[in-house]
Amino acid sequence: MSGTSTDGLDVALCDVEVRQRHLQNILSQSFPYSDILRSKLLDVAHVDSANLYELVALSYYLGHFYAECIEMFCRVNGLPLASIDLIGSHGQTIAHLSQPRLIFGSRHRGTLQIGEAEVIAKRLGIFTVSDFRAADIALGCSGAPLVPIYHQCRFAKPGSLRVIINIGGIANITLLDGTDRIAATDTGPGNCLIDGCMQVLYAQPYDAGGKIALSGKVDPDLLEGLRRDETLTRLLPTSFDRKELIELANRHHLLADMGRINKEDVVATISELTAITIADAINSMSNGATPDQMLICGGGVFNDYILTRLKKRFGDQRVISTADYGSDPEYVEAEAFAYLANLTIEADAANIPAVTGASRQSVLGKISQP
C-alpha cells in the first residue's frame, strides 16, 4: 500500500479467508521512498503540466521498485516467492478527481494510480490485482473510500457503534453499527497539510508526536476561513484529492503571512482543522450519536495533538488505537488491500454504493497474470 502521504510502500503478508471473513497479518514492513523519489512523485501529482513521458517511465520504475521491495521482504523473512499466492497493489495516487471535471461538454470523474502491476506480476511470477478504484468510478461515483468493507470484516462488533478513523494524508472514517450497514466518508485533510507546513517551515517531514502543534495556538480567523471554504462544506459522504486540499491551503494564504501568525501557530491551526473535520464528520454521519469506541489507524495515530483533541471531544476511554484489537495502525490499509485483492479473485463485489455513491455493487480491480 502506498498512501496519500507519499512516503513509501507498506508491505503486509496476510493469511486471508474471505468466505470466513478472516484476515491475519503475519508479517509487515515499510520501505520508505528516497527523498528524490518522493519529491518527484509529489511534483508529478501537483503540477498541471507534468511531462507525460516522464510519468509513463515513472510508473514502470515504481512497478520495479514495488517488486524489489517484495523480493527484499521475502528474502529478509526467509519466505520463498512461490509461497505467495496473490499480491494486491493499490499503487501511488497521482490524480484523483473527486469532483467531476468538464471535458468536451460533459463532466467526468477519474483516478490514476501508478506503479505498473504488470511489472510486479511478470517480475515476481505472482498474480497481482491493481487499479481498484476505476470500477467504482465507472459506475458513477468517486472510487473512495474502498476500505470500509475490510473495516467491517475486522472491527465490527454486534450491538456496538464503532468508528474507524484512518488518518493518512487524507483522513477518512467508517461507521459500523454492528449490523451489515456501513457508513463512511473522507473527512478532509489528515496529515498532508501538516506535513507540507512542516517541510516548508521547519525542514522536517512531519510533526513528530504533534509537538509543534502542541506548542502553538490555534488562529481562530484562519481556522474559520478554512472550515467555511467550499471544499470542506460539501455534503457527506464525499472523497477528497490531495491536490484540492493543497489548493485550499493556498487560497487561504496559509504560508504567506508569517508576520501575522507564528509558524507554530500555523501548524497548530492546521492540526486543529484535521481534528475538527474528523469530529464534525463523525457527528454528522452518526446523526449525533456518540460512538462506543473510535479506533485510530494511519500515521496520525502518533500525533498527540490530534488524539488529544479527539479525546476531549469524545472522551479518553473511547479513543483508542487499532493495535488494541490486533491490527498495527500503520498497516491497516495494507491489510485492507490484501483483503480486497482476495475479493477480486473470488469475483466478490467490494464497493459499497451507500458509501461511494456507485449505481451498483461491483468486483473491483484488474488482474495481471504472471
Tell me what you see in this structure.
The chain is an alpha/beta fold and 370 residues long. It folds into two domains: 8-142 and 331-368, Nucleotidyltransferase, domain 5 (2-Layer Sandwich); 148-325, Nucleotidyltransferase, domain 5 (2-Layer Sandwich), CATH 3.30.420. It has 13 helices and twelve strands. The chain has helices at 35-46, 52-76, 117-124, 134-138, 148-155, 192-202, 211-215, 220-227, 242-251, 263-285, 304-314, 332-345, 353-356; strands at 8-17, 22-32, 87-88, 92-103, 106-114, 128-130, 162-167, 170-176, 182-189, 293-297, 319-321, 366-368. A five-stranded mixed beta sheet has the order 9-8-7-10-11, sandwiched between helices. Strands 3-6-12 form a three-stranded mixed beta sheet. A hairpin with a 5-residue loop joins strand 8 and strand 9. The longest helix has 25 residues, at 52-76. The radius of gyration is 20 Å and the shape is globular. The two termini are 20 Å apart. The mean pLDDT is 95.
Q: What fold name goes in the CATH topology slot of the largest domain?
A: Nucleotidyltransferase, domain 5
**Percentage of residues in strands:** 15-25%
Write down how many β-strands occur, each being a DSSP E stretch of 2 or more residues. Answer: 12
Give me the strand/helix succession: EEHHEEEHEHHEEEHHHHHEHEHHE
Query: Architecture of the largest domain in CATH?
Result: 2-Layer Sandwich
Number of domains: 2
Number of helices: 13
**Mean pLDDT reading:** 95
Shape: globular
Parts with pLDDT < 50 across at least 5 consecutive residues: none
The largest pleated sheet is described as: 5 strands, mixed
